[in-house]
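Category: protein sequence paired with discrete backbone structure
Discipline: computational structural biology
Format: plain text, a pair of labelled lines
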Amino acid sequence: MTRTRKRTRAEAKKRYAKLLRRWEASKYLLDVHGLQLAPASLAKKACLGIGPEICFVNKIPFYRPTALDAWAKVVIGKPTTRARKDAYDRNRSRQSRQQLRVKTGESDPFPTNTDQPPPI
């Protein structure tokens, strides 16, 4: 029977990356990458499957710093000189919204034509 040598704490610390709890991961993302995310937001993103990689230890979620770095790099994106155009601008005029509905084939939920009596 061969015995494996027991690792010291220092060796284990070098070999394995430190695991961070959600609140620590939130602080890490803010300090290192400037991303302000609450621990509850990380939990929500984990449920939706759009957050950083998680590993569970006794049903407790932990995050690896390398996984947080990779996810932050994807979220931040590339620098650009152009602004992204919003798909739905809430300040858009009523007329332009109606034109958009005509293109998509939707009916106006609040018609302005009052010539007809309301349906009973």
